[in-house]
Amino acid sequence: MIRATLWFMPTSGVSIESLAPFVAELSQSERDRAARFAFDRDQRDYLAAHILQRRLLSSVHGELLPADWQFEPGRFGKPRVANELTSVPEFNLSHTRGLVAAIAADVPVGVDVEWLQRRTNPSLAESFFAAEEIRELLALSGDERKLRFLQIWTLKESYIKGTGAGLRQPLDEFYFDHSSAEPVLQWKGSSPQHEAPWRFQQHRPTNEHILALAICAEREAQLTIEARELTPGCL
Questions:
Q1: What global pTM score does this model have?
Q2: How many C-beta atoms surround the C-beta of residue 37 within 10 A?
Q3: Which residue segment(s) compose the domain that 78 sits in?
Q4: Could you read off the pLDDT of 36-60 as tens digits, one per residue?
Q5: What is the C-alpha to C-alpha distance for residues 77 and 80, in angstroms, rounded to an integer?
Q6: 8 A C-beta contact, residue 163 and residue 110
Q7: What is the dihedral of CA 199, 189, 164, 97, to 10 degrees?
Q8: Using CA atoms, how far apart are residues 153 and 15, in angstroms rounded to an integer?
Q9: pLDDT of 138-154, one tens digit each?
Q10: Is the pLDDT of residue 194 over 70?
Q11: How many distinct structural domains can be found in the chain?
Q12: Residue 65 to residues 19, 23, 26, 69, 78: CA-CA distances in angstroms?
């Protein structure tokens, strides 16, 4: 069985002051990065995501307190746990306007969240999406097209975050088949050598947001995702 734990927090009603008791758990570099955001809402969401990640890791892996987690760049720069532990959890986080999310598991994972009211630029699809996805978008209009764009975008983001490849992996080299219960990754031509199997899910954690998960697992594997919505008072 593969088990993953997902925590998410709507932040539209959260103030920076309500996060203050937890900010000391962050590293100096995290606090410095948060201070560089020009808008309070962006600083709030960055702080909330990183607090959530540390608290999630301590919840699923009780060897360390939230402030004790140390991170270092892994392959392609994806953060990984630097502490010496009996077992090292995989993790990922994401934040967008009004929502933050963090996931932890024993296998590589990726998560991406988006605000449904964000602007979508058609030129992004032309530059980064596969031809199959562009045709699908052109067949839609209005809100349906915008929703499908964000579904595609979050799936792609969750995958390249999960693998750690980031934009080193061209986004137009793969697309997703949406005909089954879970989106299925499809490659243009042959898939990358030694490509591990990945599974994907999409959720609507709030009426204003979409969330995509990428989990390194065989389709036949038993997969359990424990999802929990939190507020600062529940941390």
A1: 0.94
A2: 14
A3: 2-234
A4: 999 999 999 999 999 999 999 999 9
A5: 9
A6: yes
A7: -70
A8: 29
A9: 999 999 999 999 999 99
A10: no
A11: 1
A12: 17, 14, 11, 7, 22
Nearest to 99 by CA among 40, 31, 12: 12
Q: What is the largest CA-CA distance in the chain?
A: 51
Take residue 157 and report the two structure tokens written for it: 């983001």
The length of the chain, given as a count of residues = 235
Question: Left, alpha or beta for 77 (phi > 0: left; psi -120 to 50: alpha)?
Answer: left
Both tokens of residue 198?
A: 């990945």
The b-or-e profile of 139-167 (16+ CB within 10 A means b, else e) is: eeeeeebbebbbbbbbbbbbbbbbbbbee
What's the rounded Cα separation, in Å, for the pair 158 and 156?
A: 6
Structure tokens at 10: 């709507």
H/E stretch holding 176 reads: strand 174-177
Q: Is the pLDDT at 122 greater than 80, yes or no? A: no
CATH number of domain containing 227: 3.90.470.20
